[in-house]
Amino acid sequence: MHDKEKQLVQSYMNGNISRRGMLRGLASMGVTAATASVLVNAAATEALAQNGFDWKKHSGTTVKLLLNQHPYADAMIANLENFKALTGMDVVYDIFPEDVYFDKVTAALSSGSSEYDAFMTGAYMTWTYGPAGWIDDMNEYINDPAKTNPDYDWEDMLEGVRNSCAWNGQPGGALGSDDAKQWCIPWGYEQNNLSYNGRMFKEAGLSVPKNIDELVATAAEAKAKIDGTYGIGVRGSRSWATIHPGFLSGYANFGEKDLNLASDGKLSAAMNTDTSRMFHEKWVQMIQESGAPDWSTHTWYQAGTDLGAGKSAMIFDADILGYFMNGGDNAEAGNLEFAPFAANPDAAAPTPNIWIWSLAMASAGKQKDATWYFLQWASGPEHGLFGATQMDFVNPVRKSVWADAGFRERLDSSYPGYVDMHDLSAPGAKIHFTAQPLFFDLTTEWAAMLQKMVAKEVPVDEGLGQLEDSVNRQLKEAGLG
Amino acid sequence: MSTHTVDAPKKRNFKISKRYLPYVLSLPALLMCIGILIPFFTAVAYSLQRYRLSQPWARKWNWGENYLNFMTDPAFWNTLKVSLTYAFLTVGVELLLGLGIALLLQKRTRFNNFVSIMLLMPLMTAPALASLMWKLMTNPGFGVLSYWATLLGIEDMKWASDPSTAMMTVVIVDVWVYTPFIMILLLAGLRSLPRQPFEAAELDGVPRLFVFWKITLPMLTPFLLTAVLFRVIESIQQFDIIYAMTQGGPGDKLTVFQVEAYLNFFQSTNVGRSAALLMILWLITYILSTIFIKNWLRLRERARGEG
């Protein structure tokens, strides 16, 4: 970096000039915006190295990671040289596709293997890994100033996201409670909102739905008016993953819960209520009338690719799914738009249930302090900003990254409505499930029951009754109900 | 030319005492058995425990409770029903088709040999890959089979996505993959049958259908039993085709033993229930194998005139 460029970037880092001012200045020196971000990242790493923290303490150590094939992992790998230069450490990793990833994690952790020091996980999975003693409570590291660099700024993490990764291990215990253990560090997250095909909506004269009734009607209208397209994409496979995105986001917006927690600590099914019945009926009707013909096999992949290929008019699913479908070689790239969605007409704002890709530390690991060096760097504000502005590291979990003008401009210009959607939904965005060890059993059963309802094998009210009985029986068998 | 005398290498006298020889010879088998028996008895032990990875503090021996819970668990009875239905349908259809094709290809000609090799292709495809291929072909939106169905007047065919056609769809995939196995086994059997009874029947002008029922089929029964034995054992343990196509859905239409056990272990981390399910599956497989093998031995003895 030349001195003048260096000074300009440094001024920006010190907050003396705006990002736009820095970019303009660099452009006058013949530096492109892309290179400018690399310079900023290098300067940020340089600044990190000078914050008084002993980054070289574990120099020469190699940390091994287990990663899921994901743009978040790609962003980290692209920035890895900076970490190596900063710490003198090395990082090796194994990457697996998502289909087999969690089986691999379960196998590695349950065997007590020390092969992997850290790994990617979802917050739900830590409800198994944590109580099983396979992962460490990250509070021990975050709260230790000798181990954590002064610029890490844990409070910069979005509160709902941060809390969703913390649980006290008590079935039904509130996420983020004072006695909660921080089982994982949020890395990137997904809200569930509407991603729709703006071109199709315009051509068919459709307006963006604002609540569940409008969603059902708009989906049906889209299917009727747009040839060869179904109205709405939502997940439908026999898996817990069918419940957690759009379905639970809409359900929770009516104030409904999955489980009740009694004063004696016992859990019981909470989905057999009048409001829940009403929501289930509308959801089922929507899929029957306007969902994918092979809905019951749809995972996030089919929901996303159908939107990208123009086979569906919209999805009520992870916002980043719409984000990725709006680029690349997708037929509808550039045509997708985004909107917040509150299913309940009386709700003030959306309450999206969230999926959080997080980083966790294996208890069996042999070099935990060194691993924490990697984790704090990977989840730090500098890497977050690099990933968000240079790679596809959306949605970032740090408030400072969301406040970055460059990042917001980038999103706003290419992903219409995305920033507003996020800002409006973020306050209510959290995990709306009850944390408990039977999470995967009960939600998979919920999905199976939803399939039966959609297939008209069982009426909604009867199905909810059966689900309630089964959930209560399983909770009782597990000593939780 | 000069000649060199080279001393022959001395034979090493490595003798094993006759007393130990049987043990030494059976050592590889013993090692194999240990490799199988350790996981087996570990699974037996797990099946007798309340053991969830997510509730390690609650792990304890509950002896037969996992099995007793099955008695009142509708999900278990559904699994049993689905697994047996799947095995019965797949093996039944494969047997009929395999036998039919084998009879058609019985005569040794170049064409028949070529066709029989070509028909083995599906068997060389990994079932999981075959399932993904069929998943695409049966996609209601763009699948070629869905398109053909519309040409036949069947609109809105949802294949594996619909509870009423899900079983039929996975059975079709299984039949496509495994019929060649039965076909090749029966073809080998047919071609190895002695010619004399057939020549005698031909000379006497016995109708072909009578020959099939009274000569071919009885003589082929050991081969049929072998084919059925292998296929039943494999079919009742089906996992990849069903999991790749529907993950056991829609609803609980295809929750066969292996899928249920897999989900119980890897998704629910309920090791105890998963192991108990697999023990029941092992028991069913063991009983069926015993029945088939006994019958097979009886038929073999009868064929030798010992019965």
Layout of SSEs?
The complex is a heterodimer of chains A (481) and B (307).
Chain A (H helix, E strand, L loop, with lengths): L2 H11 L5 H10 L4 H17 L12 E7 L2 H8 L1 H8 L2 E7 L1 H13 L7 E5 L3 H4 L9 H4 L16 H6 L1 E2 L13 E2 L2 E6 L1 E6 H7 L7 H14 L4 E4 L12 H8 L5 E3 L5 E3 L4 H17 L9 H9 L3 E7 H7 L10 E4 L15 E7 L6 H11 L2 H10 L8 H4 L2 H10 L3 H8 L13 H16 L5 H18 L4
Parallel strand pairs in A: 1-2, 1-3, 8-11
Antiparallel strand pairs in A: 3-13, 4-5, 6-13, 7-11, 7-12, 9-10
Chain B lengths: L20 H5 L1 H21 L1 E2 L9 E2 L3 H7 L2 H31 L5 H10 L7 H11 L6 H8 L14 H27 L3 H8 L4 H29 L3 H7 L10 H11 L3 H33 L4
Antiparallel strand pairs in B: 1-2
Helix pairs in contact in B: 2-13, 4-8, 4-10, 6-8, 6-11, 8-10, 8-11, 9-10, 10-13, 12-13
Please give a structural write-up:
The complex is a heterodimer of chains A (481) and B (307). Chain A is α/β, with parallel strands linked by helices. In chain A, 46% of the residues lie in helices and 13% in strands. A five-stranded mixed β-sheet of chain A has the order 2-1-3-13-6. Chain A has a four-stranded mixed β-sheet with strand order 8-11-7-12. A two-stranded antiparallel sheet of chain A has the order 4-5. In chain A, a hairpin with a 5-residue loop joins strand 9 and strand 10. In chain A, helix 1 packs antiparallel against helix 2. Chain A is globular and about 70 Å long. Chain A starts with a helix and ends with a helix. The relative contact order of chain A is 0.16. The mean pLDDT of chain A is 93. Chain B is 68% helix and 1% strand. Chain B has a two-stranded antiparallel ribbon with strand order 1-2. Chain B starts with 20 loop residues before the first helix and ends with a helix. Chain B is globular, with a radius of gyration of 26 Å. The mean pLDDT of chain B is 90. In chain B, helix 4 packs antiparallel against helix 10, helix 8 packs across helix 10 and helix 10 runs antiparallel to helix 13. Chain B has one domain: Orthogonal Bundle (MetI-like fold). Chain B has 13 helices and two strands; from the N terminus they run ααββααααααααααα. Chain B is mainly α. Classes of the chains: A alpha/beta (481), B mainly alpha (307). The interface between A and B is medium-sized, with 36 and 34 residues.
